[in-house]
Design brief:
- It is built from 13 helices and nine strands.
- With 327 residues, it is an alpha/beta fold.
- Strands 1-4-3-2-5-8-7-9-6 form a nine-stranded mixed beta sheet, sandwiched between helices.
- α8 packs parallel to α9.
- The radius of gyration is 22 Å and the shape is globular.
Length: 327
Amino acid sequence: MREKESAGTAPLVSVIIPAYRFAQYIPATVESVLAQTFKDYEIIVVNDGSPDTGELEKALAPYRDRITYLRQENQGVSGARNTGIQAARGKYIAPLDADDLWTPEHLAAQLAVLEADPSIDMVYADARIIGDVPEAGRTLMELSPSTGEVTFERLVRRQCTVTLSVTVCRREALLRAGLFDPALPNAEDIDLWLRVARQGSRIVYQRRVLGHYRRHAGGLSADQVVHLETLLAVLAKAARDPHLTAAQREILERQCTVERTSVELQKGKNAFLAGDAEAAVGHLTRANAEYKSLKLAAVLMLLRMAPGLLRSLYQWRDRYVYRVKAP
């Protein structure tokens, strides 16, 4: 179902907001778009079969004359984004999650980069973390900085961190790359950026904080095992590309080993915190077969000989760190 189709000249930018269970946040998100200093845009909100549709539509009611509102059966966030991009009339796509925010100059600053250099297909920026999480107030680049020009290889190695809600992309480049993959439960943005880079599109980083990225305590982004395993699926998918060079395949294979080891390390930590020392030893032993870390070897020895002591040390460390960080 589609509401509101703007008439006249197509806007330069299409803002795509997928909505699922975020009715409480979406008014502030839409307001952050309406507050942009750049005004030649359309806003497309895609209700992805949200169970809170009544609340969502009530929250959007004040904005109905300023947005295009689409409803569909649930297809996941990738399907919702793709629906919005396919319906978009703008030359540029500005994706925005329903719980994230932009600074007023976001679109103007990003478009200045794209319009100044036609060889650039996508620009991204930094964002400040918001939400009830320990890292709130810090920026994403403080935690995972981008290093060097964005390339397929640097994306594989996670040397460049591209945050979806502070990107602006040429719509044509996204269509050429095949849009988001609905089969991926998360890390779908990384998958698309890999394909965008692989096809030769230029992605550049504007070193400015132009958005606010919301993290949720206990949310999907907090489950590192799920995230790492999905990232492995993304890398495995990338490795199936018949056009990869031998060097690119080698980089993918090495990174898959790194991520598999990270999965074992995280599973070991989770098992230890759950009180399952035997499972923790198994996971950490497999991780250390790759890491060959003396520190991890010492942890394994304590796990085998005195798991209670190790737990006490861990709890003491957490209390000490909390006291040091507390105001």
